[in-house]
Every structure is written in C-alpha cells, then in structure tokens.
Structure prediction request, 113 residues.
Amino acid sequence: MAKLIANYRRDYPLTYHTFFLRMESWLNYDVKHLKVDNDDFRTLVFQDFLTIKFTECIRFMKDLAGKEDVWDDFHPNELKDMTINIIMQCINSYEEKAKLEGIPDIVVEKFND
Prediction:
C-alpha cells in the first residue's frame, strides 16, 4: 500500500487531490445554488461568505500541498506545526477578507463556533 501511495504521489502532484476538486465543485456549483430560509439577503450573505472562505482555503491548502517535496525534511512535529500554522493563517485571512467585503460580524463569528 505504501508503495502504491508513493507511486501516486510521484505521478500526480498533491494539488490534483480529490480534496481540491471537491472544494472547487462546492465553490463553483453548490455555493451558487445554496438557499437559506427562502431569504434572499441571508442567502446572498452566506454565498458571499462561503465563496471567500472556500477560495482562501483552496489557496492556502494548495500552497501547503505545493511544499510536498520538502515534507521529508521535516520532523513529524514540525510538519504538524507548519500545517496548523497554515490553517490558522487561512482562517485569519478569510475572516479578514469577509469583514472587508462587508460580511456582517455575526456571520463570521457564527462560523467560528
């Protein structure tokens, strides 16, 4: 099994993982067709927020996946710390962008819970 995974990683960059395909599918289809309580304003706010969130998550996770070639140089704890740091940067980034785009604070805070 490990050999199969190693061959897959060598043949296909991690940025082509199904995670990214699914995130882009959510972003390009599911979010656009999301309805919230038949309320046009709430629907638009949540669509805008999720578009910002998914776009930032894709960007940060692709950046992390793009560093795949140096992962072997890290101790597992260093890799874990780097991953947590990137996830925290992603969260801070999409929250900041959402607020700059006029998404109400209550919506941003609700997604933190």
Notes: The mean pLDDT is 85.
